[in-house]
Write a structure and sequence with these properties.
The protein is an alpha/beta fold. The protein contains 5 helices and 6 strands. It has helices at 9-16, 51-61, 73-76, 78-87, 96-103, and strands spanning 23-27, 38-41, 64-70, 91-94, 108-111, 121-125. It has a 6-stranded mixed beta sheet with strand order 2-5-1-6-3-4. The mean pLDDT is 95.
Length: 129
Amino acid sequence: MKKAGILNRHLAGALAELGHGDGVLVCDAGMPIPDGPRVVDLAFRAGVPSFAEVVDGLLDELVVEGATAAEEVREANPAAAGLLAGRFRALSYVPHEELKELSAGARLVVRTGEARPYANVLLRCGVFF
């Protein structure tokens, strides 16, 4: 058994399969999950695990070259907006409906237990070299 890093075997395996340019949607408990991408549902109960915990855990494991969030997050969820702005230099915003459309092209969806609106981000994987 691993003693550090991501212990969830489904998530660890899915992350190992990602390549340059692949999309990873990290979403709250209310985001519609598109058909197609692999889904790792971490939600245990409302708020557990939090969006911040999952984003930070993924950033420990992934190289991210870009991120996209819903523009509505800035007004509807300032805490999530601040977290995203602080974590991603290459952060872009699109309308929430467009984020849902873009998420259909993600290779992986990681569902958190977050119960605040618009706590969603689409990550674009980079390379470590």
